[in-house]
Amino acid sequence: MFKRVLVFLIFGMILFQSAESQCRERNIAFQGGEEVVYHAYYNWGFIWVNAGIVTFGVEDAVYKNDPAYFLSAYGQTYKSYDFLYKVRDTFEVFVDTLSLRPFEFKRVTNEGSTHSRHHYVFDRKDSLVYTSISKDNKPYKDSLLIWEDCSFDLLSMVYKARNIDFDNYLPGDRIPIKMIVDGKIYDLYVTYKGKDTVKNREGRKFRCYVFSPLLVEGTIFTSGEGMTVWVTDDDNRIPIIVKAKILIGSVKAMFVSAKGLRHPMEAEITK
After folding, report:
1. Looking at the 3D structure of the chain, how many domains does it have?
2. Which range marks the domain in which residue 200 is found?
3. Based on the number of CB atoms within 10 Å of its own CB, is 11 exposed (0-12), middle (13-18) or buried (19 or more)?
4. pTM attached to this predicted model
5. pLDDT: is 135 or 164 the higher one?
6. For position 199, what pLDDT does the model report?
7. Residue 189 pLDDT > 70
8. Dihedrals φ, ψ of 69, to 5°?
9. Helix (H, G, I), strand (E, B), or coil: what is residue 243?
């Protein structure tokens, strides 16, 4: 179940961006040197089991002579749970420092007996995406996509979305998003729910914006808006809690720590 926690955490963190603002917004939310850590939980009957850890990072970089950020997300089960279901997942992407449009994306997933590799190269001149995907150690399948305006891979969308001004929306507003997942482009939306105050597992309290995305029915999620995301209402837009219903049970990711933030964590309530 841990692989579902990582997938929904990454998916949940991207759900804050309108199609128009995806192209317009500049990065003001994060900087090189940032690292954010989450614990991943699975609901086992009446018990929430802490099964693994997910770490998101930002590094200053150069991609083919262009200034870039190297964005990463690494997830793994704890060794004590490896005998049940071992997970070692990697998401990495180089992006432009201004627009955050991706240069090159890589995803490597090792989940139990399932293995896959995804590699996307983005051609800005011709608006094309070259994809190469291998699943369960089978030969790579190459394909070519038209790079639609304002579409991002999973990880670059995570960070692009953190720059949205949520105060431009009212509770109930539907916000369209466009993502490249498994070599296909999907048009989805999220519903803005308003504001709330939540606690993490250590009892730290945060003021947050709340969202629910439309999910596509498949092997992990039920269809509908079965996921809820809480992100800080300060300039960092850090996800604090992501919860989702899955076909069997439910999963949750909770904020643990952050360092190298661009702005003070003003959403935390310390009194």
Report:
1. 1
2. 2-269
3. buried
4. 0.86
5. 135
6. 94
7. yes
8. -110, 140
9. strand
